[in-house]
Design a protein that fits this description.
This protein is of the alpha+beta class. It has 5 helices and 3 strands. The two termini are 31 Å apart.
Length: 216
């Protein structure tokens, strides 16, 4: 797997419209476990929620138990090429397989109260998005940077008023909401495209370039 990428990779299966994400979470050079010669890896397999997937008449629901989830993962990946097939097929039956419920929230102005600038939202609390573009952490970091841009001049001023604080918070929220509303929708579309291989092209948010943010 490291020969594919030392950090993470993802890809679609054109035969089934299923999707795989693989990442290294921990390596022998960076852990404090007794057995140093081990890796922690994350393997995600997702599939389109529609009839006829794997030849089934009804959409495939997420199984209730870890054992059943692993069995489904192996069924989905049984015809994949190595090493992608092997990393799933070789999972021991004792593996813990968790379900991920995908949800998102495109923020809009007025969606929450900032109590005259004394409280606001950043990161996932403000703009939860699916992981198919890998942008959530980037925007969370940018949120903090932009909050500081708007608030530090006010907080450092010896003559600030409550209105100044609210103005800074309102300005932060306007910039953040305009930026992340589009990002949430792009990540949603990337999720949909990831499970419809024919829609993956240079214009798809799944593979298109991320917009640079000068203030990040």
């Amino acid at each position: 797997m490291q020969e594919c990428d030392p950090f993470f990779f993802q890809g679609c299966d054109p035969a089934t419209d299923s999707f795989m994400f693989f990442s290294f979470q921990d390596t022998p050079a960076n852990n404090d476990r007794d057995n140093q010669d081990t890796y922690d890896c994350q393997v995600i397999v997702s599939w389109p929620y529609r009839a006829e997937f794997l030849g089934r008449s009804e959409p495939t629901e997420t199984p209730a138990t870890s054992e059943e989830r692993l069995r489904l993962m192996k069924e989905i990946t049984r015809d994949w090429a190595s090493p992608f097939r092997d990393v799933v097929q070789d999972m021991p039956s004792t593996s813990t397989v968790q379900a991920i419920r995908l949800e998102d929230w495109p923020p809009e102005e007025g969606s929450w109260e900032n109590f005259d600038g004394r409280a606001t939202l950043v990161g996932d609390a403000a703009h939860a998005m699916t992981m198919y573009r890998g942008e959530a952490a980037n925007h969370g970091i940018t949120d903090v940077a932009r909050w500081l841009d708007f608030h530090l001049p006010v907080l450092k001023s010896k003559e600030r008023s409550g209105g100044d604080l609210k103005g800074a918070c309102d300005a932060y929220e306007r910039e953040m909401i305009a930026r992340t509303h589009l990002a949430v929708l792009a990540s949603r579309q990337a999720c949909l495209d990831a499970h419809d291989h024919e829609r993956v092209n240079e214009r798809s948010p799944l593979v298109s370039k991320r917009a640079p943010i000068a203030t990040a």
